[in-house]
Specification:
With 316 residues, the protein is an alpha/beta fold. The chain is 34% helix and 26% strand. A hairpin with a 2-residue loop joins strand 11 and strand 12.
């Protein structure tokens, strides 16, 4: 069994643990928080045998093969480096790091120590994602011309640090990785990018608009907001139709709409949207891979570079 240790007691953790439990070869053996009491409480709730009051203790545990890191955004780099320095494989939540230099350092460290390192990007492993990609590759909607994504989180203040830019808060860092990497995955190519961020006084970005230019004239547009309650979806427009993907980062459903008004339903069975990502990680570790062939090093570095550049451009 692949033994997972979890750094954090954040909101995402119970759903991730459910995905590991549903996987064939994964088990969660430990969880850590900055306070032992919080770790023990979640360990009891999720039936995890070991609880630690420090990240260092978990990373040093002989009961852990791979560390899943879901700490606050700015803490990703330090937590991942800690795990790697203790010779643990790492699955690191998005956004991977705050800067490209940090991301490059982590991959170099993982390669040097022969450890697996991957950005957690569950959306790319969903069965629906593969079905959408096949529809595109089979030419069912013709040549793709435009991909448009809208993501809205009007109730975000349960994340205490979200409005603190220095902590890695902000809507682009918080949610931008999903559409950025989903679009690159569907098209199997990297874009150039530019973006506009809106910062309320003294706060992190509350709205973001990103425009991507892909080869052969394909355009991607991404709108992110915590100020509006909008339908969350991605639409892929081709010359012969479009694919509508609601909640594309976790969905089990999508619809192909053709020019002649005919429709095709895409559907998959899933209890946990995390299990497919976990199964992939398990397979990579069993095969001795150091990097994912799906969430590649190149994809992660490209996305970190785009995000960092947009923040730099908008804070001048």
């Amino acid at each position: 069994m692949i033994r997972y240790g979890v750094l954090s007691t954040a909101q995402v953790v119970p759903r991730f643990v459910a995905g590991v439990k549903e996987s064939k070869d994964g088990i969660v053996t430990a969880i850590a928080s900055r306070g032992l009491e919080k770790a023990q409480k979640m360990a009891k709730e999720l039936n995890i045998p070991n609880a630690f009051g420090s990240y260092e203790a978990l990373c040093q545990s002989a009961e852990v093969d791979i560390v899943y890191i879901a700490v606050y955004n700015k803490g990703h780099y330090e937590a991942a480096k800690l795990a790697l320095m203790n010779n643990k494989h790492v699955l690191l939540e998005k956004p991977f790091t705050m800067t490209l230099a940090q991301a490059e350092e982590l991959f170099a460290l993982a390669e040097e120590r022969q450890l697996f390192l991957m950005e957690a990007q569950k959306a790319l492993f969903l069965p629906i994602t593969q079905q959408v990609k096949e529809v595109i590759q089979q030419g069912k909607i013709g040549t793709v011309r435009w991909l448009d994504s809208v993501t809205a989180y009007p109730n975000i203040d349960h994340i205490s640090w979200f409005r603190d830019l220095s902590a890695g808060g902000g809507v682009l860092r918080g949610a931008g990785t999903y559409p950025l990497e989903y679009m690159q995955h569907l098209l199997d190519t990297a874009p150039n990018a530019q973006g506009t961020l809106y910062f309320p006084a003294g706060q992190s970005d509350a709205q973001a608009q990103v425009t991507l230019g892909f080869p052969e004239g394909v355009i991607g547009t991404i709108f992110l907001t915590v100020e509006l309650d909008l339908t969350k979806q991605m639409i892929v427009y081709g010359e012969k139709g479009k694919i509508v993907i609601p909640d594309f980062w976790k969905t089990d459903y999508a619809e192909v709409q053709y020019e002649d008004r005919k429709t095709e339903k895409l559907h998959s069975q899933q209890a946990s949207e995390f299990v497919f990502e976990v199964e992939h990680v398990n397979q990579c570790l069993e095969q001795g891979l150091l990097q994912s062939p799906v969430v590649t090093k190149a994809l992660t570095l490209q996305t970190v570079a785009i995000t960092e550049a947009i923040y730099q451009q908008n804070q001048k």
